[in-house]
Structure formats: C-alpha cells, structure tokens
Write a structure and sequence with these properties.
Layout: H1 3-29, H2 39-52, H3 56-64, H4 87-106, H5 110-126, H6 144-167, H7 171-195, H8 200-211, H9 214-222, H10 230-250, H11 269-287
Helix pairs in contact: 1-2, 1-9, 2-6, 3-4, 3-7, 4-5, 4-6, 4-7, 6-7, 7-8, 7-9, 7-11, 9-10, 10-11
C-alpha cells in the first residue's frame, strides 16, 4: 500500500476533524460564562469525528470481504453488559458491542445479534438514553436486503447514540463510545492477523489503514481530558499512537525496501506482534472494566 494513497484518503477528513474540534474549543473559550451547549455545534463535531473514524459497520464489511468464518471466541459476551456500572466503562464497552453486533450481523449470527441488541439497550438505558433497537421480523436466515436493513438500523443507532451523548453534555462518553468501537475494530484485525497466516499481509494493511484514523481518536480524547477517567485512555492511546507512528514512518515511497513489488506491506513479524499485542491488551483491559 503506497503511503501517498494513505495520505489522500485520510489527510482531508483528519484536517476537517481537527478544524471542527479547534472551532469548538475556540467557541468554548469565548463563552466561558455560559453553560449552554449549542446542539448544532456539538452535533457537527461528533458527526465529523464519526466521518473520520471507521464505523463498526465499515469494519465489519471490510472483514467480511476476506470470506473468513465468524469467530465467536473473539467477540465480547453480551451478558458482560450486566456487570458494567461506571459510566466510562459503559461507554467504551458500548462501542465494543456495536462493533461486535455489526460483525455478527454480516455473518448472519442472528441469535447472537439479538443478544447484542438487548445488551446495547441496557447500556444506553444506563446512560439515560433510549437506545432500544427494534428490528421487525428478525429471521434466522435473513435475505441480503434484510441484512442490509439490520446494518442500517445498527449504524443509525450508533450515530444517534454518539450524537445524543455529545449534545447532552456528555462529550467524554461520546468520545469513549467511539474509542470502544475503534479498539474493538483493531482487536478483531489483530486476532485475525495472528490466526490467518495466508491473509496476514492484507489484514495488516487493513489494520494500518485503521491506524491512520488514530489521530482523530487522540484529538477526541484530548478534547475531553479534563473529565474524570479520561487520563487513563489518553495515556493508553498515546503509547499506541507512538507504535503506529513508528510503523507508518517506514511506509514511505522512498523506503522501497519496506515494500513488496505488489505494494503489499512488508513489516517484520516482531513489529506486527508488538502492535497487535498492544491493541489486544487494551481491548482486554477495557472489556474487563466494571
């Protein structure tokens, strides 16, 4: 994968993201005496972020193109939702559940998907939101059209949840929901990289593409780092960002020895191992929160 292509794909949306956050910060500074939140501004910021960071739906579809069997051992158990109490834990796991729900949906795992619908509803209720997902006539063997409708409903629910948190004065929880979705996407890629040797190069490209949106996550976390509990996530993602930066610096056009003739990425196994284990470690850490 040529890095110039990475830059074309991600520089513009990332720039838009940073400008939107900067504008939001400027407005906040000039209105210190006001506690009112402008819904339109908040909605614009979170929509820009969601445009920059791959959604759970996008991740699920990208994984599906590899024609790999569903891996139930990789996803978070829906019943874990019952144990979550702290708001930051609820929010980050909500993002994880949305990603796993999309992953289950594209693989026609309808029974598991229903359990995820219930888990998502429980978590949004704990955050004082109505996130109940209703899919009429859910079939164990949905048609392609029905599956598309399910994914659309999930995508809309994810978007609406993040916007509701942001506009409701809980920008930190919106940030953590997006963060949870990102880390679960990375977790799925990382495990597949370790288990699917024949597709390792292509899966690594997908993971590094996901990494190009990490700056958006970092900006989102930093924009809310004055909130309780956010410092831990800031430290975690700063370390992860340093690993991605090191790898992506190798992927320049001039550094041709790091590219195969077919433009697939060639990174040492030890470097890939450091990256994937770091992501897996963070996901397991967040998944164990209560």
């Amino acid at each position: 994968m040529n890095t110039s292509m990475y830059k074309q794909l991600f520089f513009v949306p990332t720039l838009i993201l940073l400008l939107a956050i900067s504008a939001c910060n400027s407005e906040k500074k000039t209105n210190d005496e006001s506690t009112d939140i402008q819904p339109d501004t908040s909605s614009l910021v979170i929509k820009t972020i969601l445009y920059t960071v791959p959604s759970p739906f996008e991740t699920a579809m990208l994984i599906k193109r590899f024609n790999l069997a569903f891996k139930p051992e990789l996803v978070m158990e829906p019943k874990q939702a019952n144990k979550l109490v702290a708001e930051h834990a609820i929010a980050v796991n909500l993002g994880i559940y949305y990603t796993d729900a999309c992953y289950a949906a594209v693989n026609n795992e309808m029974h598991l998907l229903e359990e995820y619908f219930e888990a998502i509803s429980k978590l949004t209720f704990k955050l004082n939101l109505d996130g109940k997902i209703k899919v009429p006539g859910l079939s164990s063997t949905p048609t392609p059209q029905q599956r598309s409708e399910i994914l659309q409903i999930l995508s809309e629910s994810y978007l609406n949840t993040c916007i509701a948190l942001q506009t409701g004065g809980k920008g930190n929880l919106a940030a953590l929901t997006v963060t949870g979705g990102w880390i679960e996407s990375g977790y799925l890629y990382s495990n597949l990289i370790n288990n699917e040797k024949e597709l390792k190069s292509d899966l690594t490209e997908s993971l590094l593409s996901l990494g190009m949106s990490l700056q958006g996550i970092m900006s989102l976390i930093e924009n809310n780092d004055n909130e309780n509990g956010m410092v831990v996530y800031k430290d975690d993602f700063s370390q992860l960002n340093a690993i991605f930066d090191k790898l992506q610096q190798q992927l320049t056009v001039e550094n041709t020895e790091k590219l195969k003739t077919n433009h697939s990425i060639l990174i040492s196994d030890s470097e890939i191992e450091i990256l994937t284990q770091t992501i897996i470690g963070l996901r397991n850490k967040y998944g164990a929160l209560q």
